[in-house]
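Researcher: Quick test of sequence recovery. Tokens follow.
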């Protein structure tokens, strides 16, 4: 009886242990955000298109198909980029829109680009801002 109880407790102890994940590429998630504003002559550009290219600080150009993500700013020319992983994360943002206060014909787009590197530690949450000046 004692032997059966010992084996049952030993089995329970062995199978209830959870192996730690020692994979250095696995980074716990945290909230890392970048608040982006696109502005022409310091005036926010509403509903501006944003194109994000991850892993680079080099401007890929104005061809939007070269980018990984596409987003649209709100009526205040702002967008919050979320889902940024911990570690050293580089990205370039290309912004393109129409400044109706400057061009009432809506024919001349304004655009600009800016890059950023966000560095965080494991489990670190961080908020950053990225102001993109756009021009004709």
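Model:
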């Amino acid at each position: 009886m004692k032997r059966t109880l010992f084996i049952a407790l030993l089995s329970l102890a062995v199978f209830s242990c959870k192996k730690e994940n020692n994979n250095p590429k696995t980074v716990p998630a945290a909230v890392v955000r970048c608040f982006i504003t696109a502005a022409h002559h310091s005036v926010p550009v509403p509903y501006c298109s944003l194109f994000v290219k991850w892993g680079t600080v080099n401007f890929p150009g104005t061809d939007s198909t070269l980018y990984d993500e596409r987003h649209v700013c709100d009526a205040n020319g702002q967008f919050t980029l979320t889902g940024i992983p911990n570690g050293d994360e580089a990205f370039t943002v290309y912004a393109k829109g129409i400044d109706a206060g400057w061009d009432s014909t809506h024919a001349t787009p304004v655009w600009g680009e800016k890059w950023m590197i966000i560095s965080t530690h494991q489990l670190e949450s961080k908020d950053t801002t990225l102001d993109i000046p756009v021009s004709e």
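Strands lie at 32-40, 43-44, 49-54, 69-72, 78-81, 87-97, 110-120, 126-133.
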